[in-house]
Amino acid sequence: MAKKEISYSEAMAEIDSILTGIEQDELDVDELSEKVKRVSFLIKLCKDKLHNTRQEVEKIFEDMNQDDNDE
User: Fold this and answer.
1) pLDDT tens-digit profile of 1-55?
2) Chain mean position to CA 36
3) Cα pseudo-dihedral 47, 53, 58, 62, rounded to 10
4) Is 28:62 a contact under the CB 8 Å cutoff?
5) Alpha carbons 50 and 43: distance in angstroms, whole number
6) To 10 degrees, the CA torsion angle through 31, 34, 38, 39?
7) Which pTM value belongs to this model?
8) Which residue among 3, 34, 65, 68 is least packed, with the fewest CB closer than 10 Å?
9) Is the C-alpha dihedral spanning 33, 39, 43, 46 positive or negative?
């Protein structure tokens, strides 16, 4: 079964949850490394999603401007 892709908002919520746990000393040393790795992965995922969304929006505006110029 394929893994469900994490949405931007789900990733941000998980990052927030992990950071709250770290700030409140809820994680033991054994968990800390894994949680930091997870946050690193989630941050990269969010950055990629933002980058892709920006490119898509720019493309839409380019297409709209092209359509306006064709008229």
Assistant:
1) 456 889 999 999 999 999 999 899 888 888 999 999 999 999 999 999 999 999 9
2) 15
3) 150
4) no
5) 11
6) 60
7) 0.78
8) 3
9) positive
Residue 42: CB atoms within 10 A of its CB come to 19
Q: Are 42 and 15 in contact (CB under 8 A)?
A: yes
Nearest-angstrom CA–CA distance, 7 and 4? 9
Sole residue written with tokens 């994490």? 6
Three-class secondary structure of residue 5 per DSSP? coil
Q: Which residue has the tokens 């700030």?
A: 23
Distance CA 51, CA 71 (A): 31
Tokens for 59? 């493309």
Alpha helices in 1-71 (DSSP H): 8-23, 29-70
| Residues comprising the chain, all counted | 71
